[in-house]
Amino acid sequence: MIPKSFKLVLVIISFIYSIYQFMESYTGNGIFCLLLSGIFILLYFKNEFIFMAFLRLRKQDFQGTLKWLNRISNPKKNLVKKQQGYFYYLHGIISSQTNLTEAEKHFKKAIEYGLSMSTDLAMAKMSLAGILMQKRRKREAVNLLSEAKKLDKHGMLNQQIKMLQQQLKKI
Predict the structure, then answer these.
(1) What is the pTM of this model?
(2) Fold annotation for 46-170
(3) Rounded Cα gap, residues 142 and 25, in angstroms
(4) Pure H helices in the chain
């Protein structure tokens, strides 16, 4: 993993070199260096290993997702706050397949650190509500489901939320 400070140094160097290229009338090289600095800025805010883990998760490859997440050695030091949220969010999804107590911890940390997209945050709260429902903690599950319903602005999780609410009524 490329350290954040090294990424910033690469941004500064490529930006300064692009200005130099523009001054020397090498416009094509200057544009290329500007695009290169833009890529380094993108990599500063979007961690490359988390991106690869999401690609593995889309293919339902939980072992591959875990492999990419394990490459992040120290998430508190190497990741921005929102990236830490997604780190724990992905760990929660993987853990929910086997260990609900561990998944609950990861989802709570993901909610604490925050997620960039409201749909992801709604999904994390809905998953946590499902775990709490299985542990017979109805009040907390109801609160989380109502928060998830508010966060789901596009209605992507409506069916899952309704299904969980119906199951909560049976408890």
Answers:
(1) 0.80
(2) 1.25.40
(3) 63
(4) 4-23, 27-45, 48-58, 62-70, 75-78, 81-95, 100-113, 118-134, 138-151, 158-170
